[in-house]
Amino acid sequence: MKKLLFALTLFCGVSAMAQQDQNPADYSTRSGFHPALAPFYHGVASGDPLSDRVILWTRITLDTPTDPVSVNWKIATDTGLVNVVNSGTVTTNVAKDYTVKVDATGLQPNTWYYFGFTFGNQKSITGRTRTLPVGAADSLRFAVVSCQDYQNGYYNAYNHMATRNDIDAVFHLGDFIYEYAANSSVGREHEPATEIISLSDYRIRHSQYRLDHDLRSAMQQYPFICIWDDHESTNNSYKDGAENHTPGTEGNWNDRKQFATQAYSEWMPIRLPDPTNAEKIYRKFAWGNLVESYFLETRLIARDEQIAGQLVNTTDAAMNDTNRRLLGQEQMAWLKNGLSGSAAQWQLIAQQVMVAPLLFDLLGQKRVVNTDQWDGYPAERTRLYNHIMNNNIENIVVLTGDIHTSWANDLPLANYNNGNNSVGVEFVGTSITSENLLDLPGALSIIQGMNPHIKWADLAQHGYMITDINSTRTQNDWYFVNTIEETNYTVNCAKSYFVNAGERKLNLGNTCVTQTKPYPQLAPPFLLDASIEGYDNVLVFSVYPNPFLEQVVVQFHLMEADDITMRVTDMNGKTVYTSYLGKVQSGLQYAHFNGANLAKGQYVVTLQGRKKSVGKMILKVD
What we know:
The chain is of the alpha+beta class and 622 residues long. It folds into three domains: 2-24 and 133-508, Purple Acid Phosphatase, chain A, domain 2 (4-Layer Sandwich), CATH 3.60.21.70; 31-128, Sandwich (Immunoglobulin-like), CATH 2.60.40; 540-620, Immunoglobulin-like, CATH 2.60.40. It has nine helices and 34 strands. Strands 5-2-1-11-10-9-24-25-26-27 form a ten-stranded mixed beta sheet.
């Protein structure tokens, strides 16, 4: 994305973007943490539904965790969880960061369910999920989201999505978390405050994002099918490195990649196709005879390094090397076989970076604006296009994220002419919050003038897409929120495009699709204004890493501002470290200490407020 901003700045004649001043938000709104959620503060989620099963997820956070911890679960047909269809007990431990994942089986196709977890007498919030249809399916609706930089604003799009109750699943196309250091103008600073590199760092960042009330609410109500993009590891990643990774100061790339994929597997409701390989997340889902959906991995498995430079000539020899890969041979073969063998009416390809060309004509020469997109891997795109056209595979719809802006594209062949000679269509969704890097004066008119297959684009707004599918057409509606800088917002459906079955080109829609078929009631929402009477002010949330070698991060929450002192004591009660943190504001907070000089053994880290102290046991290892 950084490359794309620079390239467009060049040909738009703009030297810098003006940034509007933003009013800092109330610090206490950084998370939806509430003590009444204990010990399941992160809520619940579900994902990767099949016709007879679905992944259920939560995380248990105990004041004094045992290892392992046993958690009970159940799934039922009613919100009260009385009509139970399956239940059981699952264990988790520190090696899993106390995350809980259950593959709940024995379910009926095309059915909505409710689920929850218990620990002793404590209950999680109730989640809602569904299974995939088998055979005939008349219509389906998916919300499509991506790019949710926590620091850049509030998740108003998720807030709206959580209550609309007219979608079957959420497709998340990547950039679920961002790796950057703290730098927020709206009071939502990243934690840890530094760029995330270690396994503990990635776990803390996932934890922070999943404590957001609006994200938690959306994941409570719908099954999510998720794939990562680059920021779940680091910016512009590829199989052997990343633009935002410096081995000399940030360690070995393969180690960082392993940390990122492990934390993703722990914290996301995903079913790994190969449990021994956390990088292999490409997979497909059959929605009866209506839709076959393929979720691709375009970052860590096979992607060759991006071609360096700005506005690279389309004839560049290195970029056109037929050995260059984006998907890799194994994944490409898997995708081709799936497309050729599918009997579904529609073939949905959900993936990260724009497939349609985004070119600039400079003195009669075609230039690639962003080599991180499929433009930077033309041989790979040609392989896919040739397979589709040579096998007469119809009704190809690509869903894309990454670019933080909205696009409606035909997928043109060399002789493309006003919708003719197109492979299929592509709907590109804007970001939930991440910065719109393309919102430059004159950019839109220049882009469309040089790329006639781009039928529409919006370069400024945030939100999500609704993809509505029936046997005769697939329509995509773009929903935008008017602000991400505060939690009071409005939403509108701004644009609609559709493709008819048997055609390969876009048509402008007259209106957004209103769903008329009934959906079951939402799971009971959790209200943030629930009473906090009777709860301790200071709640220690997590200590990372534990066991530890050197740096330790204590994640905690204050119901109200307090004077806080942190102490570390050994098992004889001797204080080995103390730090006065001062007057700490309410909300989710973090404290740090360096335990490199401590001897091997057990310690207790304690946070002392004016009225109450709480602590956790930690273990120092060699």
